[in-house]
Amino acid sequence: xxxxxxxxxxxxxxxxxxxxxxxxxxxxxxxxxxxxxxxxxxxxxxxxxxxxxxxxxxxxxxxxxxxxxxxxxxxxxxxxxxxxxxxxxxxxxxxxxxxxxxxxxxxxxxxxxxxxxxxxxxxxxxxxxxxxxxxxxxxxxxxxxxxxxxxxxxxxxxxxxxxxxxxxxxxxxxxxxxxxxxxxxxxxxxxxxxxxxxxxxxxxxxxxxxxxxxxxxxxxxxxxxxxxxxxxxxxxxxxxxxxxxxxxxxxxxxxxxxxxxxxx
Length: 264
Description:
The protein is an alpha/beta fold.
């Protein structure tokens, strides 16, 4: 089995998924590469910072910003100084992948011919998206031998789109969900492979819920990979229109807090 992951440069939650996944998956050598794209699809750092400031507000933005800066600096120092990979703390996904001997590529041109040619060298069986911020086009979707799949932290077809954990808390859902589904030309519309429900605690913050779903998602995707390995994959067509959400605005966050929820 040759597996390639796609994700985004998120030092907080994406690494939690991979920390958990690497504990579960054997052999690690099956993970041929991880492709990392700019966070939220933002190539411009200032645009990303403005969006996050609007989302978080001053205090939470400051707290997150300080943690982000620490992780970036610590990870860069470790990589540049070639500090041994068996250190107890790996600050970034790139550093974590290096510790496991996995190739890492930082690319925003996922649908380009050059990127496809690079990935084709690994003869992939599975392409797996974990919060990848770029919509896959047909040529990329058809690249792997078995399938191209996505992990979405919501009970699809409800809560398609961006930051589904926020919107599930916003609307007072008692349960969150994790859906593993086939990637098609739509956004979170492909046939469902696996779906699980996760209870939401009354006082759970957005941070808490994302961490919980990332860890559970790692367990579920590991099980899905094993189903692919033995040929026991079943697809269920997604029924109903469901709902779709964009990234929350500042107004949405203020209302979120009025409803008794917290980001951190």
